Amino acid sequence: MAAAELFCNRSNTFLVIGRAGMDFMPTEQGVRAEDCELFAAGLGGSSANISAGLVKQGCGAAIVTPVSDDLVGRFCIKQLERYGVDTRFVTKVGGEFRNSLAVYDLQETVIYRNGAADFQLLEDDIAKPDYDAYAGLITTGTVLAAEPSRSSAFAAFDKARDARLPLIFDVDYRPYSWTSAEEASDVYSLAAAYCDVIIGNDDEFGFMAGNRDQGLDKAKSLVADGATIVVYKMGEKGSITLTKDDEFRTGIYPVEALKPNGAGDAFMAGLMASLVQGLDLPEAVDRGSAAAAITVSGVGCAQAMPTTSELDRFLAERSA
How far apart are the C-alpha atoms of 320 and 317, rounded to whole Å? Predict the structure, then answer.
């Protein structure tokens, strides 16, 4: 399948599987967390951020995830609804399961995920959506780190394949979520074999290859094995986008960052929104890079994701 044929298209609404959480950030910009007296709360979690970013850029998003049956879970649902994300497939789990919590400042992010509610994703949950109604299925590597979420995610991959939906996968390797690096590498490789679009950074592809220096070779091998688009991100050095017919580099947009997180989620949202709306791949990757820059320079994660008009204005200012 060529990149231009990924979304040929019944919808511009994506089905997103993965976690929603609560973020805490200092209310005083540029102040280290330990020196801050008050914190603000916002929506976080990779899949929730991607969903909010898609909606802000003119797409639809429905998220499939469990949340804790408590005030934090209710906060996440209310925030998702505030951004216009479809929450029909959000379920509540009781007991000691809890939503993830992230605390961050300019230099550091600390994530609490003990007894994570999102790992309680069941096959019954992923059976509820009508897969034929969506443009594609987006997920991140976090959903694969534990059971029953892992098996449920693979069941969703099968349903997406049956519905001829493109599968979009952000590697999103978080070592603290896995029992071993070897298990993570094996599971990620299995997941990547399903997927049409695979996005990761140089460390993540190097991890999958078993050697950081072989990360780009691993990315190229995924295209050779059937992936339509692979984006190999290199931090401040930009990214390399690989397809069967092309390979090109994209730079970054330098900004004054307020935090170290959210860029990958914004890149995914910007890239997918652009592709489903018919833009060519180089422009879509460029818009994803711009969305990432805007997000790290703003307060919060979902809150800082740009709208289409904000993204257009950012790009116009830098091309003037």
Answer: 5
